[in-house]
Amino acid sequence: MAVSFPRSLALSAVIALAPGSGLAADVPAATSPAAPRPASRDLPVSLDAASSEVDYRTNTVNFRDVVISQGGMRVAAESARATGLNFENATWNFRGNVRITVDGGSLRSDEAKVDFAANRIARATISGSPAQFEQKRAETTELARGRAGLIVYDVPTGTVKLTQDAWLTDGRNDISGQELVYNVREQRVQAEAKPGNTDRVRITIRLRDPGAAP
After folding, report:
1. Helices (H), 106-202
2. How far is Cα 166 from Cα 36, in angstroms, rounded to an integer?
3. What distance in Å separates the CA atoms of residue 33 and residue 107, rounded to the nearest whole number?
4. Which of 31, 47, 120, 168 would staple 146 via disulfide (CB 3.0–4.6 Å)?
């Protein structure tokens, strides 16, 4: 049995954000002074889609032109599929022009898998040809950009792991290797080659003209 819903579908769930997750956002104050202000852990999951279809036989939900957001994280794609509307422990699969916004940065890919744990977005795994990451660096106009066949964004630790022909630049220096780990909040990168593998970390340093203006 398939049931279709209208364009706008809003879902809410009580969210317990991990300390230091970087997803906390201000919640508008209540109109009544006596009403308590919701804590950051109470941020809901919001879902909006052009259309949706629920199959009760398989307990699966399919969405078209979908956007899911929680705090400072937003996931948009041409389509999404999930097993039920449960955010406690669930995995959502997104396809087609996937865009993920997080901590002042963004990720783009052909496909993505987003894991929810304890009613919060815990991890986003994106893949593509290639999957891409971008973040504006603090106190500069330069961008940190990366690409790889597979990128995993871990929300509690605030790290982006790039594997499969990984490449990352801070706007001045380029780094490539088997595995690159970029810390979104601290804006630093760690690169290493796995033991026993001949592939090595490569860094290209772009030298500046001594006479050029800073």
Report:
1. none
2. 47
3. 39
4. 168
Domain-located, residue 212:
no
Best CA proximity match to 93, nearest among 110, 66, 111, 70: 111
The Cα-based distances of 113 to 79, 86, 95, 127 in angstroms read 12, 15, 9, 9
Strand pairing report for 159-169 and 173-183: antiparallel
Structure tokens at 94: 């997104």
What is the domain count for the chain? 1
Which among 74, 76, 69 has a CA at the least distance from the CA of 50?
76
For residue 18, being part of any structural domain is answered with: yes
The answer to whether residue 177 sits within a structural domain is yes
Cis previous bond, 195, omega within 30: no
**Other CB atoms within 10 Å distance of the CB of residue 97:** 12
Residue 210 lies in a domain: no
Q: What is the pTM of this model?
A: 0.70
Q: How many other β-carbons are positioned within 10 Å of the β-carbon of residue 151?
A: 29
CATH of residue 161: 2.60.450.10
The tens digit of pLDDT for each residue in 137-180 reads 777 777 888 999 999 999 888 889 999 889 988 777 888 888 89
Straight-line distance from the first to the last Cα atom of the chain, in angstroms, rounded to the nearest whole number: 65
Cα 56 → chain centroid: 29
